[in-house]
């Protein structure tokens, strides 16, 4: 069975509580269940992981090839603007990925405008709210189906 790894960075576990005017009222659990269902509908396994710890996300990325992950969907959250280490992990595994952001980072504080991932991502989805995960999953599924 084909596999997608869905990764979420710091504070994404607070969705539904954290600044609903920016991030909406859906919880991370709801978003993950929707992504899992979207994968199951086409016979693709979706594994979800959220962590506030950079090293946990790096280890998940490094282990992805051994787990036969074919595509990564990642919302690096605040690590977007700070983590060369996660960037290096993504480059080291050569698994295509889509970068997702719920809010429009370009309409927010200047420090949020720079991403360490956008230039190496297959695509970037920004500012479409939780629906961005749906579009990222569509992208991952289409890529997997094209290659299989």
Which features characterize this protein?
148 residues; alpha/beta; 5-stranded parallel beta sheet; globular
Largest sheet: 5 strands, parallel
Q: What's the overall geometry?
A: globular
Low-pLDDT runs: none
Find the count of extended strands (DSSP E, 2+ residues).
Answer: 5
**Helicity level, as a percent range?**
25-40%
Instruction: Name the helix and strand elements from N-terminus to C-terminus, one letter apiece.
Output: EHHEHEHEEH
The Cα radius of gyration reads 14 Å
- Judged by helices, strands and strand pairing, the structural class is alpha/beta
Strands of the largest sheet, in order across it?
2-1-3-4-5
Calculate the mean pLDDT score and round it. Answer: 93
From the N-terminal CA to the C-terminal CA, the straight-line distance is: 11 Å
The percentage of residues in β strands lies in 15-25%
Helix tally equals 5
